[in-house]
Amino acid sequence: MPELTYREAVRDALSTAMRQDDDVFIMGEDIAEMGGSMGVTAGMLEEFGSERVRNTPISEMALAGAAIGAAMQGMRPVAEIMYEDFMTLAAEQVVNQAAKLRYMSGGQLTVPVVFRTQGGAGWSPGAQHAQQLEAWFVHIPGLKVVFASTPEDVRGLLWSAIYDDNPVVFFEHRTLYPIKGDVPTEIEPIPIGRARVHRQGEDVTVIATGRLVHASLEAAEKAESDGISVEVVDPRTLQPLDEETLVSSVKKTNRAVVAHEAVTRMGFGAEVAAVLQYRAFDWLDAPIERVGAKFSPLPFAPVMENFVVPHAADVLDAIKRTVGKA
Amino acid sequence: MATEVILPRLGQGMESGTIVRWLKSEGEPVAKGEPLFELDTDKVTQEVEAEASGVLLKIAVSAGEVPVGETVAFIGEAGEDVPEVAGIAPASPAPVEARNSLLQAKEEPAPVATPSGNGRIKASPLARRLARERGIDLATLRGTGPEGRIVADDVSGAEAGTTVEAAASNSLLQAAPVPSGQVERVPLTNIRRTIARRLTEAWQIPVFQLQASADMTRVNALVARLRERDPDVRITVTDVLTKVCAQALMRHREVNAEFTEEAILIHPSANVGLAVAAPQGLVVPVIHGAERLSVVEIAHVRADLVGRARENKLRAEDLEGGTFTISNLGMFAVQSFTAVLNPPQAAIVAVGATEDRVVPVAGGTAVRPMVTLTGTFDHRAVDGAPAAAFLQSSKESLEDPGLAL
């Protein structure tokens, strides 16, 4: 089994799709010569040429609109939005156009576009370059939303996103690009809408996304030494949500923690908690704990940033509260 | 607009039910799904859950027999007007209050759950469900969770005794005052009436009895071994008997039958009923599809059913669908007996005590643990030979349990 970094895994999905399918192309700000601000598309200009690896003007609204237009015409574009903070600029196109056109045309139009974007704290990028805005897009009917946390998942899910006939907003996490992981030799598409149980446990289920999947696995290890058996589940796709897997896990463990880097207020974890309390109400033996960033713009000062966003220790505290050992 | 609480139909053929007691008093808040009152039908006593949330505004029928569909209470918003219900005396919440005060007095020395300001006990949803299912009063438990919350472990660790005490105090309250030296009148409960009616019907059926004894040496060894391997549930001879009879029924399906005026119905699955002496009278909860269950699985189902039968917590579905019955009086040192048929089933087996008897073995004698089975069969549905073959098959499997595989 080959080992790839998360960054290479994204690139591998894009390149493999482009090699076998002329309809797939990528566009975005500085993705060609520069290889993207995170280096994800490095080297792709040389292989595929400037027709298929397209630099765009610095206008997220314009590039999102162009990608949507190409998708409506039968292409499968993958548009890179450099920081998910900038998804706010593309929001009109993504929310009002991409998400609605299939519905409003009575199915005459499809918009098989992917908006790849990334964010996340941990490297002091400040308040405008590190937010986690996935919840904004989960709120929009007509969009699918993916947030992958491992090289294997990011490659298999990006593949499924490219070949999905609906617009997909595809979140990557800045701090995960260098992590390494085994991937299948051939790309194995991972179905959208299926969660992954990273670790089996009996006492509490931690449902985590993005960087917090890794933080939760670390917390689970520590909890184990305190005699607490933790199950860690990554939904991987936030919309549609694999409720069955989450609910059945919580029915087994009777306790739940939801964890993400975004602020807890109206965060994705709030929705998960609502689903769990409704579908597993009579199985819950403790309040559902939420782990997320404090309700603050992200500070630039590293020590302050570190204070605002959640870490493994916060997940561990939450785990202990659910089992009454805090 | 207040919501009417209607006496529900809990099973086919139910025409009326008897309200035993209310679990909420007038003026108390009620959430949809919370147990509202206890209803005695001819089969079970069951808690009826609220269909709506709000305040229990009025109890229209505090106790007694009520036809299905009748309005028995109203749930609505506090202070809301309630329509008059003709011909029904205003209910008194007194019994519930009396019960609570009695319980509190009894429990005083024990540290119990501290109700929060509004009198509500803090308990997790899981703990509430477990307590409801096991008939444990949360007020008798001590919470060990954060802020004194009762969690599942507290319910699991609760002594079964608390329930029994609570039940005993209830029956104390309900018992009719009896002057000493007089003939005691025990009013018929619905369950007693049903027992009387069904057994009288059964007596008119032409039945015959067959008897066989089996050497239980291997069953005893098997039970000992299973108990060792599976300490979670206490496996009993009855569990093995259930399995053995279920297999024999599937081999001799004529016995797993029901006589009707038009046809004899042969059932596809062995749903084995177990006669259980519950405090309220004889009940026969059913182990469905026993031929497909392992002995250990049967033990788990049996333990659950018998436990709930003794707590009067059986549901209608626990009692329905039986195709055959086992009545075991072995624990009372009864050598053998004949059971009365449990219609519409065509067969019942009465099981006596397993006791050491001298038996002929290979020209000599030996002492062996022996049991005597007495089958009672509906001759309209089953003839002697298939019934005998069924009994023989059961005997052989008891003597060599591997044969039931």
Q: What can you tell me about this protein's structure?
A:
The complex is a heterodimer of chains A (326) and B (405). By secondary structure, chain A is α/β, with parallel strands linked by helices. Chain A has helices at 6-20, 44-48, 60-72, 87-98, 101-104, 134-138, 151-162, 211-225, 243-253, 268-279, 302-308, 312-322, and strands spanning 3-5, 24-28, 53-55, 76-81, 114-119, 144-147, 168-173, 180-182, 196-199, 204-208, 230-234, 237-239, 256-263, 289-293. The longest helix of chain A has 15 residues, at 6-20. Chain B is of the alpha+beta class. Chain B has helices at residues 94-107, 125-134, 152-156, 160-174, 190-203, 217-229, 237-251, 295-310, 316-319, 384-399; strands at residues 3-6, 16-22, 29-30, 35-40, 45-49, 54-59, 64-67, 71-76, 207-215, 257-259, 264-266, 272-274, 276-278, 281-283, 286-287, 324-328, 347-351, 355-361, 364-378. In chain B, helix 7 (237-251) packs across helix 8 and helix 7 (237-251) crosses helix 10. Chain B is globular and about 85 Å long. The N and C termini of chain B lie far apart (61 Å).
Q: What is the compact description of this entry?
A:
Chain A contains 12 helices and 14 strands. By secondary structure, chain A is of the alpha/beta class.
The number of distinct helices of chain A, counting runs of at least 4 residues, comes to 12
Number of domains of chain A: 2
Indicate the percent of residues in helices of chain A: 25-40%
Q: What oligomeric state do the depicted chains represent?
A: heterodimer
**CATH architectural type of the largest domain in chain B:** 2-Layer Sandwich
> Which whole number gives the mean pLDDT of chain B?
82
What is the approximate shape of chain A? globular
Low-confidence stretches of chain A: none
Instruction: Please report the total strand number of chain A as a whole number.
Output: 14
DSSP strand tally of chain B = 19
CATH topology of the largest domain in chain B: the name is Chloramphenicol Acetyltransferase
Quote the distance from N terminus to C terminus of chain A.
41 Å
CATH class of the largest domain in chain B: Alpha Beta
> What percentage of amino acids of chain B are in beta strands?
15-25%
What Rg of chain B is obtained from the alpha carbons, in whole angstroms?
Answer: 25 Å
Structural class of chain B: alpha+beta
Going across the major beta sheet of chain A, what is the strand order?
3-2-4-5-7-6-12
Main beta sheet strand tally, sense and closure of chain A: 7 strands, mixed
How many domains comprise the coordinates of chain B? 3
Please report the first level of CATH classification, the CATH class of the largest domain in chain A.
Answer: Alpha Beta
CATH architecture of the largest domain in chain A: 3-Layer(aba) Sandwich
